[in-house]
Specification:
The structure is a single chain. This protein is mainly alpha-helical. Helix content is 62%, strand content 6%. The protein is built from 10 helices and 3 strands. It has helices spanning 12-21, 38-49, 67-76, 88-100, 111-121, 128-135, 138-165, 168-182, 188-198, 206-232; strands at residues 27-30, 58-62, 80-83. A 3-stranded parallel β-sheet has the order 1-2-3, sandwiched between helices. Helix 1 (12-21) runs parallel beside helix 2 (38-49), helix 6 (128-135) crosses helix 7 and helix 7 (138-165) runs antiparallel to helix 8.
Length: 235
């Protein structure tokens, strides 16, 4: 949609293999992947570049603006970060920045700058027109919303079980997975609710995690009803 040809692979191992066979202009990688994380992928790419004259621009994709995540991207050798959800306009701006600049300096953004960009990009309503443009038709958007609501309700059932029997790591894994799915909608209220629950998850007591988790479930169920209603309104 932005005019760039691209190859998509499943994880860091496949990405590293593809990089050995093709001279790409950019590498865009999720930071949390199975088999090989985006951080390890970036470190391997930088190690392979040692002694050469070419530096591949690497853009990491993360779901959180916490300074530790941004520092991990920088320390791994990434040049820039994109925070989920990322709009096409933001992606175009970042790609053009690296495309037009021969020797750019690192553009890892601070949480404040990322939050400002997020606030400018997000709205309290689903942008159905933009989704139709992205996904091809209103019928496709309706099907996507129906599938998302059904799947997310299953995720909330899973969360309820984790609140009783899961560990903090299980909750973090659940959060990362559902944020990735929710980012497709660019729906700020849902993403804000998920981010609020994630904050200080490690330091909360088990009772507080459960209480906050139940509040999150109630909030998400309310938002899912809103999403469902907007989907039902599509003729």
């Amino acid at each position: 949609m932005l005019g760039f040809a691209c190859d998509v692979v499943h994880d860091g191992v496949e990405a590293l293999a593809a990089l050995k066979n093709t001279a790409y202009g950019f590498l865009i990688t999720d930071c949390h992947m199975p088999n090989m994380t985006g951080y390890e992928l970036a470190r391997r790419v930088r190690a392979d570049e040692q002694g050469g004259s070419r530096r591949l621009p690497i853009l990491g994709i993360i779901a959180s603006t916490v300074p530790e995540e941004l520092k991990k991207c920088h320390d791994a050798g990434m040049d820039d970060c994109l925070i989920k959800p990322t709009r096409l306009a933001t992606l175009r701006d970042r790609l053009n920045r690296w495309w037009l600049t021969e020797n750019p300096t690192s553009q890892i953004e601070t949480p404040a700058r990322q939050q400002q960009a997020s606030n400018e990009a997000d709205d309290d309503r689903l942008d159905l027109d933009a989704m139709a443009q992205l996904w091809g038709s209103e019928a496709t958007v309706k099907a996507l919303l129906d599938a998302f609501v059904s799947s997310f309700r299953d995720d909330l059932v899973a969360l309820r079980n984790l609140l009783d029997h899961g560990t903090v790591e299980h909750l973090r894994e659940w959060h990362h997975r559902v944020v990735g799915a929710a980012s497709v909608l660019h729906y700020a209220p849902l993403l804000d609710a998920l981010e609020t629950y994630r904050r200080d998850l490690q330091t909360k007591s088990s009772a507080q995690r459960r209480s906050d988790g139940l509040a999150l479930i109630a909030r998400c169920e309310q938002l899912l009803e809103t999403i469902e209603a907007q989907g039902a309104a599509i003729v």
